[in-house]
Every structure is written in structure tokens, then in C-alpha cells.
Design brief:
The structure holds two protein chains of two kinds. Chain A is an alpha+beta fold. Chain A has helices spanning 3-23, 28-105, and strands spanning 111-119, 127-130, 143-145, 150-157, 162-166, 173-178, 183-188, 195-201, 211-214, 226-234, 241-248, 257-261. Chain A has a domain at 111-264: Beta Barrel (Thrombin, subunit H), CATH 2.40.10. Chain A contains two helices and twelve strands, in the order ααββββββββββββ. A six-stranded antiparallel beta barrel of chain A has the order 1-2-5-4-3-12. A six-stranded antiparallel barrel of chain A has the order 6-7-8-11-10-9. Chain A is rod-shaped. Chain B is an all-alpha fold. Chain B is built from seven helices and no strands. Chain B has helices at residues 6-19, 33-42, 50-64, 69-89, 94-119, 126-159, 162-165. The radius of gyration of chain B is 16 Å and the shape is globular. Classes of the chains: A alpha+beta, B mainly alpha. At the A-B interface, β1 of A face α1, α5 and α6 of B.
Amino acid sequence: MNSRSLQTTIVFLIMGGILALALGGYLGSASRQFGDVLIDIQTWVSTRFLGFQDFVTAPRDIVSLRQRNAELETQVSQLQAQLIEMQQRVNETEILAALVDFSRTNPESTYKAATVIGRDPSPFLHYIIINRGSNDDIRRGMPVVTNQGLVGRIDAVIADAARVQLITDPASAINVYLQNADTSAVLFGSVTGDISLDMISQNAVVDAGDLILTSGLGGGFPSDLIIGKVITIRTLEFELFQQATIQPAVDFTRLEIVLVITNFRPVDISPLVPSTSP
Amino acid sequence: MRNIVAFPLLGLAVILQSSIVSEMRLLSGYADLILLILAAWALQERVDSAWHWAAVACLMVGYISSMPWPILVIGYLAVVFMARILQRRVWQAPLLAMFSVVFLGTLFMHLLSFAILRILGTPFLFDDVMGLITLPGLLLNMLFSIPVYAFMRSLAHWVYPFEEYE
């Protein structure tokens, strides 16, 4: 037997011995220690490798993450714009639904809806501009309302737009009727946008909360359009008339959509007014 | 031909005035963008078309506003007149000139509006107009005058290049 065969035999014997010891359960503690060491080494190598891999691939990830972030930000801004648009549509729908209800409950008039697109450039005047004009059969003098009440009347018309004088305009004067007091008065606008009543008879008993409607006198407005209600009354014995401050039914700061009453034609009574000259 | 920029710019200004600036109220007053643009434009040294701009502004504002024509014509031309006078005298301090023109121009425009509308029968009270419209409007005009001046100065440099002027 040569030396190489002897070595092979010894190796096999050792391995067979170790295998026999292992199968017999005599190498358990040594095997666990060996396994622990192996796992520790494996963990250390794996951790370092992953760190190195992160280090090598990180720049690519940042670029792709930035791209993804930009895409998502764009998507978020688009969704936010859509959300705002949807909210506007919901608001418009709510307003239109209220206006439709109003027109159904007042079938004697015909209405044309219009959007408010601007206000008069001068702070001295209280006018709005709407997006309906003579092409939509809008004429000067037609009353403008919302579902809450009277807004004003058409002052000037062009083909696709019209200017509306609000009842809050300082130059506005409207004949009104106080329902509970059963008396007439005149409604005036003011610089501040507040409205007030004047020329209330001293004999009339007016209370806070009384409803004010258009009287139809003078032919400028149809009768029974709601204007507002009385807040306070000022009565002075030495004055000819009582005055009152009014809470308007319409919120004039938030006018968005209005209705033009198209079947009303104002009556010009100026030729019937007796002239003062001899 | 280069003054044709007045039409789109003043048109845009009138639209902004009607739709946005008129909603930015302080009490019952708001800024007058057209007045600010005219004042800033007339104060630019190289500009020679301020009177034309005032005429275009009168046409545009008069088209959409219910304000009587004489108020717009006299008011805006007076603003340009004041600006041209001050531009020659206070040329070394353009912002001071801008503030002065805006202050005097706003006061003049509002007093003129008050007087003519009173004559035409609108029942205004002077105290109400001063306290609720003129003073808040004056404050807003002064606030807006700096950015408007800066913008119009840039526009003047673009419309009237320096080399050409020399």
C-alpha cells in the first residue's frame, strides 16, 4: 500500500468517524458553535454587501424617485384643480337648483339665467355686469332677481352683456310695500351698500321684521318681489315721515348667478307726470 | 405703432378692475388700476404717448362703467397732466413723484365724481364718501402704486429702448 492510498484511507476513516459521531449525537454542541460562527460571518458579509450595493445603486434610485415624486406632484396638483372645479360646479348646481325652484314657484314670470361677470369699475356706483344681452332678448328696465329676492334692474344692454343697477346703488329709488303695516314707502340705496326706507307715513305702525315687497307703483318693477325685512325704525315727531333700516334678502357681496325677468316691460310714466312749468 | 400695446394692456386692466380689483374692498373703496397705470406711464421719462393712453382708457372704462363721461375724461387727463408736470420737476425721485400723482389724482378724481354725481342727483354725503370710499381707495392706490410703477417702468424700457432714445 503506497502512501497516497494510506492518506486516502485515513481521510475516509476520519470522515467516517466524524459522521458516526455526528449521527450518534456526539457533535451537537460543536456543530451549533460552528453554525453560529458561520451565521455570524454570513450576516456580516451580507450586511456589508447590501450596504455596498445600496451605495452603488443609490444615485439611480434618487433620480428615479425624484422623477416619480415630480409625476406624483403633478398628479396631485391636477387632482386638486379637478377638485376645485368640481366644487365650483357643485356650488353652481346648488344655486341653479334654487333658482329653478324659485322659477317653478313663480310661474307667472319667465326667466333667463345669467352669470355675474364683473362690477362697475367705480366704487361710487353699485352695478354688476352679466353675460346676457340683447341677443338673449334682454331689454333695458327688466327686473333682475335671485331666489332670495330683488337684485336690481337692467340699466344698459349690449349684444352679449348687460349692466344691472343694484337696489343698493346710491341713485336707486324703488317704491315698496310693507306687508304687515299695509303701507307704501320708498327704498333707497347708499354708498355703503346698505338700503333704507324713507317716506313711511307717520301713521303707519312698522315693526322690526316686517317684510318689504315691491309695490309695482311707478311701473318700474312688478309687484310682490321680496326685498328684505325691517331691522330698525326711526320715528321723530317733528319729521314728516318715518325711516327704517333694512336687511336685504339678497347677499349682494356673493352674487354669482341671477335671473332676469324677461316678460316684464317697464312702463315709462314720465309723460304722465305733470310738469312744474306753466 | 408701438403704442398699440396700450389697447391690450388697458383692456386687460379694465377687465381686472371690473372682475378682481373691485372685489378687493376696504370698507366701500377699492383701488383704481387704470389711474395707477396712467400715472405710472406718464411718469416715464421717454414716454410721449401718455395723453393717447388716457384717451384709450376713457373709452374703455366709459364703455363698461355707468360713470358719466366727463368724470372719466377730466379725471384721467388731469392725472396725466399732473404726472407730466411732476415728471419734469421731481425726475430724480420717480417713486416720490408716483406717490404724489396717485395721492393728488385719487383725491381729484373722487372729488370730481362726488361733485358731478351730486349735481346729477345722487344723494351722497361728503363725510360718507370721504370716510368710506376716498380714504380707503387712497390707501389701496398707494399700496398698489409701487408694483404698478415697477411694471410700467419695465414696459417703458421695452417699448422705448434706450439706444433708440439716444
